[in-house]
Amino acid sequence: YCLVMTENYIRNNFDDIINHADTIEKRLEASVDVEELIAENRRNLSLCEENGENVILIDNEYKIDINL
Q1: The Cα angle at residue 51 between residues 66 and 62, in degrees rounded to 5
Q2: pTM over 0.70
Q3: Is 40 helix (H, G, I), strand (E, B) or coil?
Q4: What is the largest CA-CA distance in the chain?
Q5: What percent of the chain stands above pLDDT 90?
Q6: Which residue, of 12, 25, 65, 67, is most buried by count of CB atoms within 10 Å of its CB?
């Protein structure tokens, strides 16, 4: 599964995204630009779709329940 954030989600939750940036893994970059994050997520969505990957689009809230 690919988790991809929409522009709407990023703009409305940017502070939370930054505050939890290294919750799962250590990020190398100390600063993140909102526009770069939006562009990166658009690219990720495009690549996932091109490769037939399952995508979970995070738009209104980050609440995910997946049975693996």
Answers
A1: 30
A2: yes
A3: helix
A4: 33
A5: 57
A6: 12
